[in-house]
Amino acid sequence: MAKLFEPFRIKSLLLPNRIVMPPMCQYSSNQDGFVNAWHLTHYATRAIGKVGLIIVEATAVEPKGRITSKDLGIWSDKHIEGLKKIVDICKSYGAKVGIQLAHAGRKSQVTDETPVAPSPIPFSTDYKTPNELSVDEINDIVEKFKNGAKRALKAGFDIIEIHSAHGYLLNEFLSPLTNKRNDNYGGSLENRVRLLNQVLKEVKKVWPDDKPISVRISAEEYDKKGNHPEDLVNILNLLKDKPDIYHVSSGGVINTKINVYPGYQIKHSEIIKRGTNKPTIAGGLITQSYMAEEILQNKRADLVFVGRELLRNPYWPLQAAHELNHEIEWPKQYERAKLDK
Ligand code: FNR
């Protein structure tokens, strides 16, 4: 049997297959972070296409935590209704659904806000210089992640993902390139992981024990002085309140060019998986079913994310099942289009 179509359990969550749609910002909210028809159609289409786990795009825990003014938000109870619609429609087609809780930190480009960060260093000359967060402000952001998790639960999500990758706020604290603080939040690994630890601790107070939590990480920062996969292992092993799975990505911390190629992040996943003894979601330029199958069969990751290929082809899992000789139930409305064995 194709491993890509084997179910996978994390706590009480039973995924129907190993295909994950990673969070991908749609920058399509017309107003104040609310869900609209675009989001419903976009996510529902991938659920119809048999993606096992759909992780809804980076959703901001506070207005200042948006990348743009068109990002989705979860900073108010009013956001729950729209998010619940995404959950309900995707579940009705058999997918499991997660949401990425995010704070953009110094990479926020919301025009009427000054971004915040561990240290007042701009991402590039195109970005504003962020305000350095005080300890009170840090605690306030922790509370906002917790409130976001509470709302995600009310909306019915199966899993939450804490965005600690791509140079956004939590990643900025982890990285020596962006965190130059002299207090309890900077310097040593213990100090740099403090904020992520706090977020996980508080989120776990409101997120049920039997539901999983994912943390997305940039395992490689593509700078000699930045974090590398082995550093991430050391950082993550310091967490007291551990997540259930790591979603392994890379980059985005500094403005630099990355040499990308199919599978370029899989080696990072292997190091994180082995070093933390936790399951991983891995991917990056994965477009072919047999590439995903190889990653899983060789235990380089437990789940595979397929991002842009699912933007090109929302029914990718149906095609992958055909290629891997796996019998999958097609939506009955599309049965006449079923690929022949
Ligand atoms: C992304 N990515 C991304 N990552 C993340 O953690 N949160 C997000 O909201 C987004 N937003 C986003 C939007 C768009 C349009 C793209 C293309 C990408 C990164 C994404 O999840 C994934 O890691 C990369 O796209 C690499 O995987 P693929 O596309 O090569 O399979």
Calculate Rg over CA atoms.
Answer: 19 Å
- Shape by Cα distribution: globular
Give the structural class.
alpha/beta
- What small-molecule ligands were found? ligand FNR
- SS summary, helix count: 11
What fraction of the residues are assigned to beta strands by DSSP?
Answer: 15-25%
CATH fold field value: TIM Barrel
Q: What is the N-to-C order of secondary-structure elements (H for helix, E for strand)?
A: EEEHEEHEEEHEHHHEHEHEHEHH
Total DSSP E strands = 13
CATH superfamily: Aldolase class I
What's the story with the biggest beta sheet?
Answer: 8 strands, parallel, barrel
Characterization of the model:
This protein has 341 residues and is α/β, with parallel strands linked by helices. It has a single domain (3-337), classed as Aldolase class I (TIM Barrel, Alpha-Beta Barrel), CATH 3.20.20. Helices cover 33% and strands 16% of the residues. It contains eleven helices and 13 strands. Strands 3-4-6-9-10-11-12-13 form an eight-stranded parallel beta barrel, surrounded by five helices. The chain has a two-stranded antiparallel sheet with strand order 1-2. A two-stranded parallel ribbon has the order 7-8. α2 crosses α3 (135-155). The longest helix is centred in the middle third of the chain and has 21 residues, at 135-155. The protein is globular. The two termini are 15 Å apart. The mean pLDDT is 97. The chain binds ligand FNR. Ligand FNR binds at residues 22-25, 57-58, 100, 163, 165-166, 216, 249, 283-286, 306-309. The site of ligand FNR has 20 residues, from β4 and α10.
